[in-house]
Design a protein that fits this description.
Two copies of one chain form a homodimer. By secondary structure, chain A is an alpha/beta fold. Chain A has helices at residues 4-9, 15-30, 49-59, 74-88, 103-114, 130-137, 156-162, 185-202, 227-230, 263-276, 284-291, 300-316, 339-347, 373-378, 380-389; strands at 36-37, 97-100, 120-125, 141-146, 167-172, 207-211, 234-239, 252-256, 329-330, 351-352, 354-355, 365-368.
C-alpha cells in the first residue's frame, strides 16, 4: 500500500535510537540519575556564549531569513574556503563550498551527484550504520572492508583488494564513529598511492569522501592527517553538530578539492541535487552564526576529561579498550561473542550501550562519552558489577 | 565520470533561478531601482518582531540545539496538531505530525514513503516545476493533467480520466503557485467523490498530497477549502517560508490524516525516510520559534495591496489576468504564443518575468508580487511600453 521498501524498513530502524529510547524508559522507571545512557552522540555541553550571542545578533538582521543563492551566502562560503585552505593547504575558493543542512545531508548530495546505479562505495567497518542507507538510496552498492583488528586503522591492502571497475568512491570517517580512532597518516598515504594506481588501471576517478564532523575533537595531542592534502580527488563533508554542539540545527558544508577534474560541473550538479532532494539551501541564520565561529570548539576539554575517566573506569572493570584518540566514543571489546546479548545483559545494571553489530563490527560495543561527568562517575559501580558478572575482575 | 543523470541536469537548472540571476545582472548594470524583478517567491517583508523575539528567547534555552526525537519536539507537534485540528476539523494528534525542513523536504519524505517504482502521481498544470524532479527522484512517474483553461480550477473530469491502476497519489497546491488561484470547494468535493470510486475500482488507496505553504495568504475574503476535511486519505505538507517570511530557515511539517489506514506505519516509515534522505530532524530552534507563532501571518496586508496594484497596472497595460485570490503570484496570458520569447522581449524594459512554460503551461507568464511597493509602482512605465510593443494598448 505504501512504498514496499519503506514498509520493510519499519521495525528495522536504528539500533542506536532504539537503545536511546530504551534508556528513556529506564530513566522514567528508576530516575534519570540511576540510568547510565551511553547511546547517543548528542553533545552534553550547551552551545558556547559566542554562538548564542551570534544567534541573537543575526536574528533581526535585514534579509537574514530570506532565500539566498542555493549554495549559500557568498561571505560564509568565503570564510569556510579560507579556513579549510589554512587547515589543509589546498587552494579552495568559495566556489568549492556548498553550504548544506548537516553532514548526513551533505553525504546524500555528494552520493547522488556521483553515483550511477550499481556503482560501489567502499565503507570501512566499523562504520556509522546509516552510510549504507545513504549509498543504497542513490542506487549504489556498499562494499564493506574491515579495519585492522587491533588498531581499527585502515587496512590498506584490504581496501586496495576491494577496489574494482565499479568502485566510484571510498568513504572515510576519521576521527571515527564508533571507534574514536584517528586513521594514521602512514595508512592514508599508502592508500592514496594505491588508489592513484587503481585509477590509472581502471581509467576513471575514485573519489575519497571524507566525513569529518569530529575533526576538531582529538585528545592527548593526537593530530588528524589532512585528507584533502593527501587525496587529490577528495570531497569533504563537515557539520557543526559536534564541534559547536549544534546537532539539532542541521548546519554543515561540502567542500570539493579544486584539483578534481570538472570540479565546477560537480558543484553545479550538487546544487541541483540539493534542490531535487528538497534541501533548497542550508538554514540561513545558522550559516552566518557558524561562519563567525569557525575557530571555536565547544566542550573539547570536558570530552578529554570524560573520555579518560570512562576509559579508566571500564578498564578497571576489566574491559579491553583502545585509549581515546578522537570523537567522543569508546569501542571496547565485548566479553562474549554475542555483543547484542552482552548489551542486553548490561541493561540489568541500567547501562545503556550500543552493540558493535550495529556498526558492522560484532564482538564490540560503543560508548558515547559526551554525557555529564556525573553520569560517568555514578556509573562506576554498575561497570564493576558488569565486569564481575562476566568474570573480568 | 559523475552521475550521468546529474551531468545531464546541469545546464537544465531552474528557469526561475536563471531569470533571477539575469535580474541580478541587469540590476548591477542599470541599478537595482531601475530593474523590476518579479521572478522569485522570496517574501519582501522581514520576519515579524514576535518571530525575532522568539529566536532571541530560545537562543540560549538549555538543550535547545541538541538532537530531539527525529519527528521533532513533542510540544511543537502537539501545538501543530491542535492548530490543524481547529482549522480542519480533523482529529489530529501529535503522533500525526512530523516536523521537517520545509515543504520541499516534506514532499520528498512523503513521496519516498509512498511510491513504488513506476507508480503515478497526478500533478495539475500549471505546477511548481520541481514537483516533477521530486516524483522522479523517488522513481515515480508524474502524470500531468491540465487545470481548466480560464479559471485554472481543477478539471475534475480530466483528473478522473487520468487515474489508472498505477495512480498512487494526487498532488494539489492551493492557493496555487504559479496561478494564485484557490481551487473551488465544488471541484474538490466532486474530485473526492470520484477518487473514492476509483479507489474502490482499483482496490487501493489514492492519496491526496496537499502542499499548503500559501494557505494563509488569500485576499478579498477568498477562503481556502480544507482539503483534509474533504479527502480522507490526505497528507498535508506545509512550511513557514511564506506565512512567516522565513524561506531561508527551512522549517515546516507533514501531517497525516489519522483516517488513513495504517497511519502509524506511514509515520514510522516517514521518520526512517527522513533519516535516509539525511534530514535527521527539522532545525531545532526554529521548531520552537514557529510553534509560538502559528496564528501569525507576516505581510498579508502588504501582499493584498501589492497584488491589487500590480493587477491594476498590467491590466491597464492591456494584459489579461485573473484577479489575485491567494499566494503572491499573478499568471497573465502572454500576448504571443511563445511565452519564452515574450519574457525575453520584456527584458528590454528591465522586466524580469518567468515563462508559463517553466510551470508546464505555455502561453502565460508568472509574476511574483512579494516585492516592494516601490518596485511595483516604478515598473508601470515599463509595463505600458511592453503593452504598446505587443499592440495591447
Amino acid at each position: 500500500m505504501f512504498s514496499e521498501e519503506m514498509v520493510k524498513s519499519v521495525g528495522g530502524g536504528s539500533e542506536i535510537r532504539a537503545m536511546f529510547e530504551q534508556g528513556a524508559k529506564l530513566a522514567a522507571q528508576f530516575g534519570a540519575e540511576n540510568v547510565y545512557d551511553f547511546t547517543l552522540g548528542n553533545p552534553d555541553p550547551e552551545a558556547d556564549p559566542e554562538v548564542t550571542a551570534a544567534i541573537k545578533k543575526y536574528a533581526d538582521e535585514p534579509g537574514i531569513h530570506k532565500y539566498m543563492p542555493n549554495a549559500g551566502y557568498k561571505d560564509v562560503r568565503e570564510k569556510i574556503a579560507a579556513y579549510m585552505k589554512e587547515q589543509n593547504g589546498v587552494d579552495y575558493t568559495f566556489e568549492n563550498v556548498l553550504m548544506i543542512a548537516g553532514a548526513a545531508a551533505g553525504l546524500n548530495v555528494v552520493l547522488k551527484s556521483l553515483l550511477n546505479p550499481g556503482e560501489n562505495v567502499i565503507v570501512i567497518a566499523p562504520y556509522f550504520v546509516e552510510y549504507l542507507s545513504y549509498i543504497r538510496n542513490h542506487r549504489g552498492v556498499p562494499n564493506i572492508v574491515k579495519a585492522k583488528a587491533d588498531s581499527f586503522d585502515i587496512d590498506v591492502d584490504a581496501v586496495v583488494n576491494a577496489i574494482n571497475s565499479e568502485t566510484k568512491a571510498i568513504l572515510l570517517n576519521s576521527p571515527n564513529n564508533p571507534t574514536g580512532v584517528v586513521y594514521s597518516e602512514e595508512a592514508l598515504r599508502a592508500l592514496a598511492e594505491a588508489v592513484a594506481k587503481k585509477e590509472e588501471e581502471y581509467g576513471h576517478e575514485i573519489y575519497v569522501l571524507s566525513d569529518e564532523p569530529y575533526i576538531k575533537l582529538t585528545y592527548s595531542g593526537v593530530k588528524v592527517p589532512s585528507i584533502p592534502s593527501i587525496f587529490r580527488n577528495s570531497i569533504v563533508v563537515n557539520s557543526f553538530s559536534k564541534s559547536l554542539a549544534l546537532p539539532g540545527e542541521r548546519i554543515g558544508y561540502i567542500i570539493v578539492n579544486p584539483a578534481i577534474k570538472d570540479a565546477d560541473i560537480l558543484m553545479q550538479g550538487m546544487i541541483i541535487c540539493a534542490r531535487t532532494l528538497g534541501y533548497v539551501n542550508a538554514p540561513s541564520l545558522f550559516q552566518k552564526v557558524i561562519a563567525d565561529n569557525l575557530d571555536l570548539t565547544t566542550g573539547l576539554e570536558s570530552y578529554a576529561e570524560r573520555g579518560e575517566l570512562l576509559y579508566n573506569i571500564i578498564t578497571e572493570a576489566g574491559f579491553e579498550c583502545l585509549k581515546p584518540q578522537g570523537a567522543f566514543y569508546l569501542f571496547p571489546k565485548a566479553p562474549i561473542e554475542d555483543d547484542r546479548a552482552f548489551c542486553k545483559a548490561a541493561l540489568k545494571y541500567n547501562l545503556i550501550l550500543v552493540s558493535g553489530s550495529g556498526f558492522g563490527c560484532p564482538g564490540y560495543f560503543r560508548l558515547a562519552y559526551c554525557v555529564s561527568k556525573e553520569t560517568i562517575l555514578r556509573s562506576k559501580n554498575a561497570w564493576m558489577e558488569l565486569g564481575k558478572e562476566f568474570g573480568l575482575i
